[in-house]
Amino acid sequence: MDSVNKALEIFEIFLNNSDELSISNISKLSGINSGTVHRITSILVRRGYVIQPKRRGKYSLSTAKLVDFAKIVRQKLKIKSVAYPYLKEMSHTVDEAVAMANLLGHVAFNIAVVNPDHIIDLKPESATLSLYSTGLGKVLLAFMSEKELQDYTDNVTLKPRTHNTVTRVEDLKRQLKQIQRDGIAFEDEEHELGIRTVAAPIRDWETNVTAAISIVGPSVRMTKKRMLEMVPIIKNYAHKISRAMGYSTDFT
After folding, report:
1. Between 163 and 122, whose confidence is greater?
2. How many Å apart are CA 80 and CA 84, to the nearest integer?
3. Among 99, 118, 96, which Cα is nearest to 110's?
4. Is the same domain home to 87 and 55?
5. Whose CA, among 26, 74, 168, 185, lies 20 to 30 Å from 224?
6. Is residue 66 domain-resident?
7. Are 105 and 38 members of one domain?
8. Is the pLDDT of residue 238 over 80?
């Protein structure tokens, strides 16, 4: 963890300085020894976060990477601003909490939450959720490329959160194929006992799944029968949000 803190500290120094910086400059500003600074900076260069315009010269933040970050931020803000009125309407229609998330590495990132009665202890906006144990997460996993999914299953351990959590990769992949076919995901007390959710994908104008929405309720109220009753409702709102994002083909 100490090495992560040092890497973030060095990255923040680049963020806060418009000038090119030498290893000794960074070492003085951070208080980190020059050997460690050189090692971390070399990694940042290889990953494209920092550039070294001249061989053996000074370093600066990569403009291209900043542009990539800006695009991600704009996309997140756009999705939330477009979707939020529909999420509020859906929450009012079903009288349950609703949430929306998109993919952030190997986790789901909560973009928006509507929790009118606050009975459900939902993760707040900007919180992260596991992908394999949540309805939102399984939707995002289901529409990954094969390469992305393989990277996920190679690097994430499917730890049991409840007795219902899927813990075998082959079982997870079987669920994901079903989600691809149906365009819907169910979470049956897999992430937290007493909580069930129904989730659906949000697509953009290029037909990419850029987010997922879910209806969340306590299992005493969100019976399996009621979960099925939620399917046409959440699909309808997923379609509305997707259309607002530029998607033009009907959902199946």
Report:
1. 163
2. 6
3. 99
4. no
5. 168
6. no
7. no
8. yes
- Is 194 a member of any domain? yes
With 0-12 / 13-18 / 19 or more C-beta atoms within 10 angstroms meaning exposed / middle / buried, residue 25 is middle
Tokens 């494209």 appear where?
Answer: 48
User: Where residue 1 falls among pLDDT bands split at 50, 70, 90?
Assistant: very low
The string of pLDDT tens digits covering residues 150-189 is 999 998 899 999 999 999 999 999 999 999 999 999 999 9
Query: CA dist 216 to 83, 120, 151, 198, 225, Å?
Result: 17, 8, 29, 7, 14
Q: What distance in Å separates the CA atoms of residue 108 and residue 203, rounded to the nearest whole number?
A: 16
Query: Under 8 Å CB-to-CB from 105, ≥6 apart: which residues?
Result: none
Q: What domain range is 134 assigned to?
A: 73-244
Indicate whether 124 and 199 sit together in one domain. yes
**In CATH, what number is assigned to the domain containing residue 32?**
1.10.10.10
Residues 178 and 115 in one domain: yes
Give the domain CATH number at 173.
3.30.450.40
